[in-house]
Amino acid sequence: MRQQHHRPRPKQQQKQQQQQQRQQQQQQQQQQQQQQQQQQQQQQQQQQQSIETRTIFGRRGEEPSAADIVQLPSAATAAAAATAAAAAAANCGKRSVTTAATATPPPPPSAAATRAAAARAAGATAAATARAAAAAATAAIRAAAATRAAAAIAAGARAAAPAKQQQQQQEPQRQQQQQQEQQQQQQQHLVVEAGPFGGNFIFEKTVAVRHEALVVREARLQLQLDELQQQINK
């Protein structure tokens, strides 16, 4: 009688087995959901890395802009996000079950997830290094161009300074020559008005003198132009 009294009832055994099966099914579903979420996260991160790689290295010869700079998540951030997602999925999938068996804790991140996080971190570091190198090269090119432009401007100023100085020195002489020519013209005009000979002779004489003065002036100007041209060529 005691053996029959302590013997578990068949219905209770069936209920316990059914509860255990349900718990196992729930655990399997939770694990499958966690694996699917991890796979989706890995796919999204791989797509993001490929997009960033094309964005960073697809425009060769151009200066990187602010739109090309994309911050990648670090390995610790990715691992924390995966753990939080797994915990949220586990909390959503739990059901109240009155049983003495305790729920199994979620499995730790797999080795593949750890390797993927490390690869993402390495890719982020390489991309940041490439962007920094490109920015440094661009700055160096701009600095060299600015230095060359400043040197060219300074050389041009030094080359033009002697010519300008000589022109300033010759300016009083030129003004003096103009004054002399004007005085000669005035004197010739007076000779024409008060000449003792006929008007035709005086007119021809005046024209000849003026022509000679113009020839001399033209020759002087030509010499000045030749000197300036030689100084510029030096």
Automatic annotation (TrEMBL):
Domain of life: Eukaryota
UniProt keyword list: Nucleus
Disordered: annotated segments: 1-69, 163-187
GO CC annotations on file: nucleus
Low complexity compositional bias, start-end: 13-49
Compartments, as annotated in UniProt: Nucleus
Signal peptide positions on this chain: none
Biased composition (Basic residues): 1-12
UniProt name for this protein: Uncharacterized protein
The species this protein was found in: Eimeria tenella (Coccidian parasite)
